[in-house]
Design a protein that fits this description.
25 helices, 955 residues, 34 strands, six-stranded mixed sheet, alpha+beta
Length: 955
Amino acid sequence: MRDPADLPSRLRRPRRVSDRGRMVLIIVAVVLVVLLLASRAIAGFYVDYLWHQSVGRTDVFWGMLGSKAFLFGLFALLFVLLSVLNLLIADRLAPSTLSTDTHPAVTRFHEVFGHRMRLVRVVACAVLGLMVAVPASGHWQEWLLFRNSVNFGKNDPQFSTDIGFYVFRLPFLVFLFDWLFIAVLLVLVITVAAHVLSGGVVITPPMPKVRRATKAHFAILLSVLALLRAGGYWLERYQLTTERRGYVQGALYAVLKAQLPAVLLLMLISLLVAALFLYSIRTGSWRVPLVACALWLVIALFGGVVYPSVIQALVVNPNEKEREAPYIARNIEATRDALGISKVTTVPITFGDLTAQKVAGDLSPVRDTRLLDPAVMLRRFTFDKGQVAGLAITDLDVDRYNLNGRVQQALVAARELDLKNVANTSWQGTHLIATHGCGLVVAPASQVQGNNRPIYSELPLDHPELYYSPSITGFAVVKTNTTEKPCQGSETAPYAGTGGIQLNSAMRRFAFALSFFDYNLWGSNSITETSRIQWVRNVRDRAEKIAPFLHFDTDPYAVALNGKALWVIDAFTTTDQYPYAQDADRSQLDSTSGLNHVFNYVRNSVKVVIDAYDGTITFYKMDTVDPILKAWSNAFPDLFVDSSKMPDGLKDHLRYPEDLFRIQTAAYARYQLAPSAFFERTGAWSVAQGPPSEPNAKAAAAATVTTDGQQSASNVSAESTTQRFIPYYTMFHTPGSSVAPTFSILRPFVPYSKDDTRTELQSFMVASSDPATYGQLTAYSLTATVDGPTVVANNAETDGTISQTITQLNQQGSTVRYGDLQLVPVDGGLLYVRPFYVVGDNLAEYRFMIVSYNARAVIDSSLTGALKKLFPGFSGEVGDRVGTTPSDTGSTVPTDTGNTTTDTPADLLNKAQKLFDEADAALAQKPADFATYQSKQAQARALIEQALKALKTSG
């Protein structure tokens, strides 16, 4: 028999983790997660501070943070004090022992928490205090404006109160009374619960038993609620001045005669209810105050909603014009002031007949006509000048530069960093090597080469590297041991600027690595103590991070000045609290516009300038009168810089914001009327209908393209879904004046019609961007009928020569696109000029110019040729094509084209298209064969000229 010791021992089961051990593991895991989140939050805070420090804006950082912390602490403390005070009162009023009929739940609560009752209540009050204080910290902007409010110097017409009260004080006061009402209501709930738990209220069927002292405590709190509501009603009186329920915005007849008296009555009732609750402390009965509360509710419903609607329907609507007349006048005056259209200069103008001699004697306006539309030419610029790995041209901006011997309109493109297309997609490649864009490309908008291409040139920059731009994302680390990718034609040199945050300590590197959750920032050997991390490189995000209380334009534009590349961003101050002013019509804005929010007051008070090399950001005050900017200047005294300190020459490149001009023209179309004509809209205008950008397209497009190549989601007017005319920048020559042209933005108007059928030109507005007249709005009102943009565009499209040209090009697989239809006043007359592009493989090429006058339209490959066709005997030279020998049609006919007199126009156009294809093939070669390309282009244009002549002769 075997010894038991020799028998195999029984396998033991693994020990199970005890409940206590499991709990410890859970607690440890939770603590680790909390520590990780907390440490990342702390790192993020530290990184945020370092960023503000790097741009010299710690004043803004601490100012915003201090305001949020102050409001959070103040409101949390206020709630805790209110709740604790009422809990102490509840304790003092509580019976010494619980009643025998106390609810079992209350008894059980005392058994569980009896010895910790004080702690439970303090924790509950603290938690609720923190919860109700969080929303309060979000109102830091209203608080700062409240503290730093200024006067507008103008009173509202109803209460004779300075408008500054409505804009700066009223919003915070309304929030304060609303918050106090909710806080006291929560305190009342806490107090009721405290009295239930302490025995002051015994829950027994059918009605709870309430001690007299407890009932008095409740009555005081209810009285406070009623008093707070009375204060809310008092403030509501002022809010009626922006009421949106009548013919126009503001306190109109029904509001003043019905709703305002109802609000005053409700205020008196709330005061009465407060008094009755206080009186109930003496009587011990709540019957009368509760009846008063029911009456309060009925009057609130009837007086605040039903009665004003009845007055509107029975008194106002039958006689609306007479009843609303004085209030419409208030609305007109307020809207003009608030939207900046009160000082529009109106100039009557008559356009007469033009002759060849008149046009030849006043060629400057024609020479400044824009041939290249930024919306159409974006891909062409990208193909010609942006085909570099890791770089992209994402936008074309309109500006003016001295090019080819004169100041003229120009298109400016920045080669921005495009991390999606970099050759090296490693961490080093996207953060240490590909760190910047390269250079600014410029081309005159009113001239092209003989081969239809823009006349490109590079704007001179000391540092062509663009480390900051509108579409750049992510972060970059410069001054590392890894060589950055140099710009083409530039020497490899380390970053010499001060942009970014120096990573000169292990703590900084660890903080960034933790905040960005990127170990490489800690572990990379390429990063040294002299390295700098550039973060928030998108220029608009950069501006918004410093001044989130401003609203920013979505189209920053690049300026080359004194060897530096600068980005300029328009910043706006807005409010929706201006008494009697109408809300801005935002239907014609892009969905991403900085002005795409509700407002009835706006000013372009700030120009933000950002250095593309080192990220230096400066906020220039352009409007020293704007009260909102004054208030923010009081809040942050060192943030804004006077415009007189702007670098020399920069004002010559500022431009009037397109989005603001859209808002103002949409408003002025109606608000140029006198009060007597406003109701019936006699003499009202509409922004002119926008001609389609493609042949045979409908005018009611869901989306259009803005003048800077950005899509607009809803270019519609308030009266019609028809696409409206898009404003365009131009070198505007004042009709009848010999002064130098001004860089301006222009938009035409047509007479208002309910069905949008009026299409004749009524007026056009111009906003100047020149330093001496910046912001001046001028409306030129026509005294005689002239065809409007859509009529002119339709007439041109139905012209035999133009329509056949379009048909032939479409048959050959190309697509025709139009540029902006431009109004060109010339020596007392008016020309309409429109570029004509041919698009193939998504690349547009300028081919022709359509010129219209007196219901007649012609097409030619040059402005000179078109004017010769339109005005026989014209002998001038516009000079819109550079590098060709001018002739009667603006081009020469090579001898080797192979055409014969038997070729039809279709044959000629087919041959021309074949030559264009051969030219593109020559350009696509590696390396490109420019000689063949230019030769084929010249031959093709000559054939097109012959085809046009043949079509004209046969027509």
